[in-house]
Write a structure and sequence with these properties.
This protein is mostly helical. It has a single domain (4-143), classed as Ferritin (Up-down Bundle), CATH 1.20.1260.10. Helix content is 77%, strand content 0%. The chain contains 5 helices and no strands. It starts with a helix and ends with a helix. The protein binds fe (ii) ion. Fe (ii) ion (FE2) binds next to loops.
Length: 146
């Protein structure tokens, strides 16, 4: 079942999850201050989870017969998530940035999930369900450090 909207949604999801994974790893490396240990550990758990998820999403695109995007150039073109700032970011700003990213991704994933549900693409629905739960929990765990 090849549906261009389904592929576009999965490709955007792959791009956004990949860029969020890198941003989370960036913050894992660069976080400083009294919250260092807690955020360093939390960010590691989150980017590790995302690494497995991006693989699922990419392979779903392949299973539907399309090429999976796999370069930062392509990801940046189709992602609404932005890369981490190049300059120094303090821990509170990291918390704000990631909380916003997780919350805004959830909104897009809910739309993609509804589209997938409409065309009875149950496998993609279940991928979106897993991601939505993860991002809701991730946003909560991050913003609880404020
Ligand atoms: Fe590490």
């Amino acid at each position: 079942m090849k549906n261009q909207n389904a592929i576009t949604a999965l490709s955007q999801t792959l791009a956004e999850e990949y860029l969020l994974m890198l941003k989370t790893q960036n913050f894992h490396w660069n976080v400083e201050g009294p919250l260092f240990y807690s955020l360093h550990k939390l960010f590691e758990e989150q980017y590790t989870f995302l690494a497995a998820q991006v693989d699922e999403v990419a392979e779903r695109i392949r299973a539907l017969g399309e090429r999976a995007p796999g370069s930062y150039r392509e990801f940046l073109k189709i992602s609404k998530v932005e890369e981490a700032p190049a300059d120094r970011v303090n821990a509170m700003r990291m918390i704000e940035i990631l909380n916003d990213d997780h919350e805004s991704i959830v909104k897009r994933l809910e739309q993609f999930r509804a589209q997938a549900d409409e065309i009875k693409d149950n496998t993609s629905v279940s991928i979106y369900d897993g991601l939505i739960s993860f991002h809701q929990k991730a946003a909560w765990m991050i913003r609880s450090h404020r």
